[in-house]
Sequence to fold (149 residues):
Amino acid sequence: MSVSSSSPGLQENALYRLAAAGAVLLSVLLILGANGHFVAIWAQVMSEATALPRRLLLMLPGAVLAGTAALNILFSQPLWQARGYALTATLAGNLLTMLYLIYLLIQGVPGHPIGVFLALEMSFVILLVAIRAGMVWPARTETAVHIKR
Fold:
């Protein structure tokens, strides 16, 4: 009687599900950040003394946060299903947002929580890059074992 394993096992990558859950959580925090930004600048944006280009520049950080949140929510279900296009789109959008937040941090906007949002974005981008690089976190392994008699 011999026991042999005919297949090494199939692995399901649970990092995709972690990324999908992280995308939803990050989206909630980004929406709250965008809302706080818009509340803070609303008086200046509505002022007649503020020129249109200045208004648009004031609204840009909030729009970037809200746009990234929408992108993350839009692709969270396909990311949960381990779709490659969702990983690529989510990684690209969050990478651009991270680079924009780095730019804002370098510019030195005093009194703004740019570092907090940059840390959140950077953590999420690291997770997405790890998945893209092939990191696998097996949730379960199905192994077929055949017994010969």
Summary: Confidence is low (pLDDT under 50) at residues 1-10. The first strand starts at residue 2 and ends at 5. Residues 2-148 form one domain. The chain has one domain: 2-148.
